[in-house]
Design brief:
Elements: E1 4-10, H1 14-25, E2 30-34, H2 47-52, H3 54-73, H4 88-113, E3 116-119, E4 121-126, E5 129-133, E6 139-149, E7 153-155, E8 168-169, H5 171-174, E9 183-187, H6 191-202, E10 206-211, H7 222-235, E11 238-241, E12 244-251, E13 254-261, E14 264-270, E15 272-275, E16 279-281, E17 314-316, H8 327-341, E18 355-357, E19 362-367, H9 370-375, E20 380-386, H10 391-395, E21 402-408, E22 414-421, H11 424-436, H12 441-445, H13 456-464
Parallel strand pairs: 1-2, 1-6, 2-3, 6-17, 8-15, 9-10, 9-15, 10-11
Antiparallel strand pairs: 4-5, 5-6, 7-16, 12-13, 13-14, 18-19, 19-22, 20-21, 21-22
Helix pairs in contact: 1-4, 1-8, 3-4, 3-6
Pfam family, one: Pyr_redox_2
GO molecular function: dihydrolipoyl dehydrogenase (NADH) activity; flavin adenine dinucleotide binding
EC number: 1.8.1.4
Length: about 475
C-alpha cells in the first residue's frame, strides 16, 4: 500500500484542482490524480477547460474578433490601415501559449499549497481506496479517508456523423484547424457550436449551423435569444433550425451531410464538419463494481445538494454530476466539498450560477427567464434597456444588444438577469451578486453607477422594472 491521504481527488480540471488546493489550504493531506498527457508525453493539469475548451476557445474568439474589428470597423472610428489578413498559424501559436501559461500555473499552485500530484488514471476500488494506473501500465493503490471524483465530461458523438480524421471533428479538433475552411458545417446551435462557428466565420468560412430543435437558445430569455439570433445572422452565420441530421459521407477532402427539415430531405457539402451536440459525463471505468456509488442511466453520479454520493466519504463534483456543465460551477462545488470534509458548514446556491456564450456580442444570463417564471405560475415584472441608448456603448462603437431584469411582481426580488452585449460576461456578475444577496430591482435602481460605463444599462433596466428609466421613453408613469 502506498501513501495514505486525507483527501484524494480524481481529475485535475476546474473542479478537481480547485478542490485539491482548497483541501490542502485547510490543512488536509491531499493528492490529485490526473491522466491527461500532452503531445510531449507530459502530464498536464486543467482538464478540458484549460487544454481544449474554455481557455483555448476564448483565445481564438478574441483574436478573431480583433481581426474583424480591424478589418471592418477601425475605419469607422478613424483608424486607417491596409486590409489585415488572418495568420492562422500565429493565432494557434498564441492559443497554445495561453494554454501553457494556465497549465503551468496550476502545477505551481499545487507545489505552493502542498498538493501531491499523481500521474495516471484513477479508479475508486473501495470506500477508501484509489487505484492509479501509471502511464507505464503499473498500478499503485492509495488509501484516503475522503475521495472526490472530478472526472469531467467528453463530447457526445452521434451515429449519423462518425468522426473522420480532421474533416469530421468534435470541438477539440475545431481548435486545431491549420487553415480557414471555405465551407464549414456545425451540428448544434448551443454554446460551443455558436462560439466555434463564430471563430471561423470571422476568419472567412461560410458557416452553416444545423440545429435539430425548432427553438433558438431555449435556455435563454426569449427576448435575448431573438436579439442574439438576429445579430449572428447579420454577421453571416446561417442558422437552420429544425434541421435533424440523418447521415454523412466523407468524399475525398469534403463531407456531404444529409438532414431533414420542414421542406423534406436536404443535403449540404462542407470542407469541415464540427459535431457540437453536447457532452456526457466521463464516469465509465472510474468506479469499480461493488463500491456502491450510484449512477443514473446517462452515467451521471447521484449526489445530494452538497455533492455527497451514496457512499460516506466519497464525493463527486463538476460535469459528472447533475447541473450545468460549467467550469465555475465545478470549482465552487470543489470548494464546498473541501470545506465540508474539513468540518466546516458549506453550501452552494445553484439558483445563482451564471452562463455565458462568448460570441460577439456576448450573451450572459443568471436565474430564471421570463418564460420560466410564467411556467411556474410566478407573476413577474420586467425591465429592459438597449445598449444603443448607453453612452459608453456608443463610444465603444458597440451599441448592439440589451439588458433585461426579471423581478417578482409582489416582492420585487430579482429572479433573473439576461444580457446580450459587449462584455456581457463581465456585466452579469452584477446579477449574480444581486441574487446571492436577495436584492430587489429597487436595490439596483437606487445604486449609484459610474458614468460613462456599460454597466449603466443594468441600472436603467432596474429602473425600467417600475417604469422609471431615465434614458428611455417610459412606458409607465412614475409613482
Amino acid at each position: 500500500m502506498a501513501d495514505k491521504f486525507d483527501v484524494i481527488v480524481i481529475g485535475a480540471g476546474p473542479g478537481g484542482y480547485v478542490a485539491a488546493i482548497r483541501a490542502a489550504q485547510l490543512g488536509l493531506k491531499t493528492a490529485c490524480v490526473e491522466k491527461w498527457v500532452n503531445k510531449e508525453g507530459k502530464t498536464v493539469h486543467g482538464g478540458t477547460c484549460l487544454n481544449v475548451g474554455c481557455i483555448p476557445s476564448k483565445a481564438l474568439l478574441e483574436t478573431s474578433h480583433k481581426f474583424v474589428e480591424a478589418r471592418d470597423h477601425f475605419a469607422e472610428i478613424g483608424i486607417d490601415l491596409e486590409a489585415p489578413k488572418p495568420n492562422v498559424a500565429k493565432m494557434l501559436e498564441f492559443k497554445n501559449s495561453v494554454i501553457a501559461k494556465n497549465v503551468g500555473g496550476i502545477s505551481a499552485l499545487f507545489k505552493a499549497n502542498g498538493v501531491t500530484a499523481i500521474d495516471g488514471t484513477g479508479k475508486v476500488t473501495g470506500t477508501k481506496q484509489v487505484e492509479v494506473t501509471g502511464h507505464d501500465g503499473g498500478k499503485t493503490t492509495y488509501e484516503a479517508d475522503n475521495i472526490v471524483i472530478a472526472a469531467g465530461s467528453v463530447p457526445v458523438e452521434i451515429p449519423p456523423t462518425p468522426l473522420h480524421e480532421d474533416i469530421v471533428v468534435t470541438s477539440t479538433g475545431a481548435l486545431e484547424f491549420t487553415e480557414v475552411p471555405k465551407r464549414l458545417g456545425v451540428i448544434g446551435a448551443g454554446v460551443i457550436g455558436l462560439e466555434l462557428g463564430s471563430v471561423w466565420s470571422r476568419l472567412g468560412s461560410e458557416v452553416v449551423v444545423l440545429e435539430a430543435m425548432d427553438t433558438f437558445l431555449p435556455m435563454v430569455d426569449t427576448a435575448i435569444a431573438k436579439e442574439t439570433q438576429k445579430l449572428l445572422k447579420k454577421q453571416g452565420l446561417d442558422i437552420k433550425l429544425g434541421a435533424r441530421v440523418t447521415g454523412s459521407e466523407v468524399k475525398g477532402n469534403e463531407v456531404a451531410v444529409k438532414y431533414s427539415d420542414n421542406d423534406g430531405e436536404q443535403e449540404l457539402t462542407f470542407d469541415k464538419l464540427i459535431v457540437c451536440v453536447g457532452r456526457k459525463p466521463y464516469t465509465q471505468g472510474v468506479i469499480a463494481d461493488g463500491v456502491g456509488v450510484g449512477l443514473d442511466e446517462r452515467g451521471f453520479i447521484h449526489v445530494d445538494d452538497q455533492c455527497r454520493t451514496s457512499v460516506p466519504g466519497i464525493y463527486a463534483i463538476g460535469d459528472c454530476v447533475r447541473g450545468p456543465m460549467l467550469a465555475h460551477k465545478a470549482s465552487e462545488e470543489g470548494v464546498m466539498v473541501a470545506d465540508i470534509i474539513a468540518g466546516h458548514k458549506a453550501e452552494m446556491n445553484y439558483d445563482a450560477i451564471p452562463s455565458v456564450i462568448y460570441t460577439s456580442p456576448e450573451v450572459a444570463w443568471v436565474g430564471m427567464t421570463e418564460q420560466d417564471a410564467k411556467a411556474k405560475g410566478i407573476e413577474v415584472k420586467t425591465g429592459s434597456f438597449p445598449f444603443s441608448a448607453n453612452g459608453r456603448a456608443l463610444a465603444n462603437n458597440a451599441p448592439e444588444g440589451m439588458a433585461k431584469i426579471i423581478a417578482d411582481a409582489e416582492t420585487d426580488r430579482i429572479l433573473g438577469m439576461h444580457i446580450v452585449s459587449q462584455h456581457a460576461g463581465e456585466l452579469i456578475a452584477q446579477g449574480v451578486i444581486a441574487m446571492e444577496f436577495g436584492s430587489s430591482a429597487e436595490d439596483l435602481a437606487l445604486t449609484c453607477y459610474a458614468h460613462p460605463s456599460t454597466s449603466e444599462a443594468i441600472h436603467e433596466a432596474a429602473l425600467a422594472v417600475d417604469g422609471h428609466a431615465i434614458h428611455m421613453a417610459n412606458r409607465k408613469k412614475r409613482k
